[in-house]
Amino acid sequence: MDVAPIWSTVLSFVFLGVGAVCLFLILKAQGRPQVEDYQRLARYHRWGGWLFSALFFLMFVFMLARIEDQWEESSARIAIHVALATALLVLIILKVSIPRYFPKLRQHLFLLGVSIYVAAFTMVGITAGYYLIWKYQEVPYLSHAELSPEMLETAMGKQLFIEKCSTCHLLENIMHPRSEESWEKIMNRMIELAAPRITRAEGGQILHYLALTHTPRSGREGSLLQMYCFPCHAQESEILVENYSRSDWREAVRRMREYGPDIIPEEKVGEIVDFLVQETAEGD
Ligand code: HEC
Ligand code: HEC
After folding, report:
1. Spatial CB neighbours of 198, under 8 Å, sequence gap ≥ 6
2. How far apart are CA 95 and CA 109, in angstroms?
3. In degrees, to the nearest 5, what angle opens at C-alpha 240 toward C-alphas 237 and 243?
4. From the CA of 199, how far away is ligand 1's center (Å)?
5. For the segment 236-254, what is each residue's pLDDT rounded down to a tens digit?
6. Cα–Cα distance between 80 and 88 in angstroms, integer?
7. Alpha-carbon distance 244 to 108, whole Å?
8. Contact predicate 72/39, CB 8 Å
9. What's the rounded Cα separation, in Å, for the pair 261 and 169?
10. Which residues of 253-271 are buried (b: 16+ CB within 10 A; e: fewer)?
């Protein structure tokens, strides 16, 4: 049982709205020097109070279901939200039982009501409010051009790379040099894929580290391999795959071009493929 965040957000705001009306009604009924229709205001307040409590219990049940699905240590924000919800449960039960069973404590009801509203307001504010801000603020696309230099540190990027990326990959499989643009695309994809385990800030550090240390070396004059492959690869044995057919090579060179379009010019692809086919056929 999961509710889309937008619906629990709407529900939370209805809940706060009902609470605000109740608070206003009781302020009006008890706070003014003269009130003619006290009974009517108090009655509306009571009905509103029941609606408020019902909405609270409904959301409390949804929340329990969500906690059940939670497989990670929650953030401080969520922990405070849960603590406030638990406190609210007790406060609301007290508030509805006093008029019924302990009428001598009636004079405390107003402060109890205000406490409930403050707790509810804070509880909703730090989650639903946060959600709305996050949703309507453009989530920035991570780009190496926009990282602010004082925030970045290569050592931290390396540490985070080792820590965060190794949960799914063997690191040596993902360390081949690529262009900055290619890393940028990958980091954005990995952050999405690994959500919420890699934050955008951490992703920024990792991108900085990779773009600085795992990009192509400048090409050297020399053989085709030296000019077009060794900027990213270290040895022939790594790239001269024996059993590749011509179409395999064409596909591979096209992919390599995506990782470093500046290094492998479009018009050279045919020549490179011919060379690779010839190189790898020689052994037969
Ligand atoms: C939750 C698991 C997970 C985490 C964590 C993760 N990856 Fe990946 N990665 C994948 C999967 C699945 C794919 C293949 C699907 C794809 O490419 O979108 C992939 C693909 C890749 C590729 C190959 C893409 C290509 O087009 O050649 C690279 C490089 C990569 N990841 C780097 C990283 C880096 C760097 C990190 C750390 C910031 C990282 N990954 C963290 C799951 C993960
Ligand atoms: C801009 C960097 C870059 C350049 C230039 C480059 N490569 Fe790669 N290469 C990569 C990356 C990144 C991988 C790992 C991801 C993958 O396998 O797609 C890789 C993987 C490979 C692989 C193993 C994957 C497979 O298809 O089985 C082969 C073979 C290869 N490259 C051959 C070449 C050859 C030949 C050249 C020269 C024509 C070349 N590469 C130039 C970045 C580059």
Report:
1. 164, 190, 191, 206
2. 7
3. 120
4. 15
5. 888 888 889 999 999 999 9
6. 12
7. 83
8. no
9. 25
10. beebbebbeebbeeebbee
Task: Give the separation between CA 104 and CA 60, rounded to whole angstroms.
Answer: 30
Pocket around ligand 1: residues whose beta carbon is below 6 Å from it? 164-165, 167-169, 174, 186, 189-190, 193-194, 198, 206
Write the CB contacts of 135 (distance below 8 Å, at least 6 apart in sequence): none
- How do residues 136-177 score in pLDDT, each as one tens digit? 765 556 666 566 665 577 788 898 999 999 999 999 889 999
Mutate to test the pocket of ligand 2, among 214, 244, 256 (most ligand atoms within 8 A of CB): 256
Closest ligand by atom to 179 CA = 2
Can you tell me which residue has the tokens 């004082």? 150
Pull the structure tokens for residue 164.
């965060």
Residue of 213, 158, 157, 167 lying closest to 190 (CA atoms): 167
CA-nearest residue for atom 24, ligand 1, is 186
* Cα distance between residue 167 and residue 47, in whole Å: 53
> CA 88, 12, 39: angle at the middle one, nearest 5?
70
Ligand 1: centre distance to CA 169 (Å): 7
Q: What is the pLDDT of residue 218?
A: 78
Six-digit token string for 131: 């959600």
